[in-house]
Design brief:
The chain is mostly beta strands. The protein is 12% helix and 33% strand. The two termini are 43 Å apart.
Length: 426
């Protein structure tokens, strides 16, 4: 026997104005409404007197989606999860933009082991161990160690089909607009070559030299102490200046007016504290093909001395109600409609989607109501769990805002709890 007992129905609302008329076809595009099975709109007052209800949605094309009939007496639980953006893991080794340093040890082999948690993307046990190494010379400096380790990590991770982590070398040398490059600098992600419009000057007449460093903002905005720092390896011409490693930020121009590149002299760099920042990259996501996940890893350092610290700055989080999370749930639940050939889904069947990547507020608040529908057959008492999930824009439209007359949030509270008690309130 094959059976499907745990069925979930998902309604993805849009930014729409609430209506009050009966029947689902009276709603505005993107609006979610609650009705009796006969199509009469449910209000807070009538929700206390009825048992059965349906949820309806009208999409942008005028197509109506109506749920099965639910009985409020079967409600087991109801809760709301507020939207929270995903966060990328951020670790620092040594200097972290405020404090810290790397122990400079002569003739020392520094090694960083990074165990990346691949989760369901892996065809092994879900872990991938990567590393970076650097052998210091007889007069070691923090600058050479940070630059060398960042380059080793970049080169090692570049062998992967997908980027997991972005590695930056960062320096405590103070920000100073006098050291802003006088001309526009052009950078290309993945290339060691940068170009400068007409000359190599900073501080109105001081030439950038081989052995100096340059701090580059990820976009054309003012640089910060946590922005990536590169060593100048060669200067062949204004259109061919080579960095110690491929540029890791966003391709484009960095202008003097926005103070987005600053020089650091070789002497100032040697006297500063240095560190490495490790930031989780956004993984590829395609609903039904590539799972939604965020990068997580653990770092182990070998032979870094006694004072080098590994700062755990930001933990990785998938967030709640993110665009990718809702899109993945939407794709998966289409299997409840009979599509179980998952391998052929992308080529044989085109999945429908109501997810709006530009939804107001950046994502969705999620309301989940679970039902236990009991019935008796000839052999036993059967409990059939069902789930109703409503995704509403995080910047809530008035059909879902508590305080609006007969909004769906208050109506659902009366159906689930007997009164509009605020348990599902925005």
């Amino acid at each position: 026997m094959r059976t499907q007992r745990n069925v979930e129905h998902l309604f993805i609302g849009g930014t729409a104005t609430k209506t009050t008329a009966n029947y689902p076809n009276s709603m505005n595009a993107g609006e979610i409404g609650i009705f009796t099975p006969e199509g009469i709109r449910v209000t807070e007052a009538t929700a206390a007197t009825i048992d059965e209800f349906v949820v309806a949605l009208e999409d942008a094309n005028g197509v109506e989606y109506v749920s099965p009939v639910y009985n409020k007496n079967d409600i087991k639980s109801a809760k709301r999860t507020v939207y929270a953006a995903a966060t990328a893991q951020l670790d620092y080794l040594g200097y972290n933009g405020t404090t810290g340093s790397i122990d400079a040890i002569n003739n020392n082999l520094y090694k960083i082991n990074i165990q990346v948690q691949e989760l369901l993307r892996a065809n092994t046990d879900g872990r991938k161990t990567k590393f970076g190494v650097y052998k210091s010379d007889s007069s070691a400096t923090q600058a050479e160690i940070a630059i060398g380790l960042a380059g080793s990590l970049v080169n090692n991770f570049d062998r992967e089909a997908e980027k997991f982590i972005t590695f930056n070398a960062i320096c405590s040398d103070a920000l100073d607009t006098n050291y802003t490059m006088d001309e526009t600098v052009t950078v290309t992600n993945g290339s060691k070559a940068i170009s400068i419009a007409t000359d190599y000057d900073y501080n109105t007449g001081t030439d950038l030299a081989v052995g100096d460093f340059i701090r580059i903002a990820d976009t054309d905005t003012t640089v910060a102490l946590t922005d990536d720092v590169y060593r100048i390896e060669t200067i062949n011409s204004t259109s061919d200046i080579r960095l110690d490693r491929p540029y890791q930020g966003t391709s484009g121009t960095r202008t003097h007016g926005n103070n987005s590149t600053q020089a650091i002299t070789a002497a100032d760099g040697a006297a500063a504290d240095w560190g490495i920042s490790m930031t989780g990259a956004a993984l590829d996501f395609v609903a039904g093909k590539e799972n939604y996940e965020v990068v997580r890893w653990e770092t182990q350092v070998v032979d870094f001395g006694t004072t080098t610290q590994n700062f755990k700055s930001t933990a990785a989080s998938r967030g709640n109600g993110t665009i990718n999370e809702v899109a993945e749930l939407e794709w998966f639940l289409q299997g409840n409609e009979g599509e179980y050939y998952r391998e052929g889904f992308s080529t044989v069947h085109t999945p429908r989607s109501l997810v709006d990547s530009s939804v107001t507020g950046g994502g969705y608040d999620m309301t989940t109501i679970t039902f236990d529908s009991a019935h008796t057959n000839a052999f036993q008492n059967v409990i059939s769990p069902r789930v109703l999930t409503l995704a509403t824009p995080a910047t809530a439209p008035n059909y879902a805002i508590t305080g609006t007359s007969d909004d769906i949030t208050d109506v659902l509270e009366v159906l689930a709890f007997g009164s509009a008690n605020g348990n599902l309130a925005l």
